[in-house]
Each structure stands twice: as C-alpha cells, then as structure tokens.
Specification:
The chain has helices at residues 10-18, 22-45, 52-69, 83-90. The radius of gyration is 17 Å and the shape is flat. It has 2 domains: 1-34, no CATH class; 47-98, no CATH class. By secondary structure, the chain is an all-alpha fold. The termini are far apart. The longest helix is centred in the middle third of the chain and has 24 residues, at 22-45.
C-alpha cells in the first residue's frame, strides 16, 4: 500500500526494492518492457508445439496491457486515458477490405 492507501504501482515497488528515484524506476521498467516485446516477437517466430491461435491470444492480451499501462497514466485508475481507444473500437467504423 502507498501513502494514499492504494495498492503500490510497479514503479513504486521498483523504487522501494532498488532504492531508486521515480525517474530511474520508470526508465528501467521501460527497458524491461522493450526487452519483453523483443522476447515475445522472437518466441512467436520459433517453431513451437503451442497452437498459433493460443500465442495470438497471449500477444493480444499483452497489447491491451501495453495500451492500458504503457504510458505514464494508469488506465485502471484514470479510465479517461482510454476514451479514444474505446471510441475507435465501438463507435467509429473500421474500413474492411477484401
């Protein structure tokens, strides 16, 4: 829990665990994120016994997480940051080509 009584964010946990500044924690977490995407992309290119459809579900889940939490804003506690995405998904028409 942080001072406001909320659950600690990943940045706050990193700061406490490594005695780092907020800026340093954000930089390091962003590096971890970039490296994780590289690993995911490499793993999707390798032959595997897992069906590709299953892998696509995992990648899509990670994409949603990246959109929700990839910026400095936390979409869970600041849902207005997702407004444009929700509008595009449910209100705007997406052109379909055959």
């Amino acid at each position: 829990m942080n001072k406001r009584g909320d659950c600690a964010s990943g940045v706050e946990c990193y700061m406490k665990q490594y005695d780092a500044s907020e800026k340093k924690a954000i930089e390091e977490i962003q590096k971890m994120d970039v490296n994780a995407w590289k690993d995911i992309n490499e793993d999707c290119m390798r032959p595997t016994n897992a069906p590709m459809l299953l892998l696509q579900h995992f990648v899509n889940l990670i994409r949603v997480t990246d959109v929700s939490y990839g910026n400095d804003d936390d979409a869970y506690t600041i849902p207005s940051s997702l407004k444009d995405y929700v509008t595009l998904l449910y209100i705007e028409q997406v052109p379909m080509y055959e």
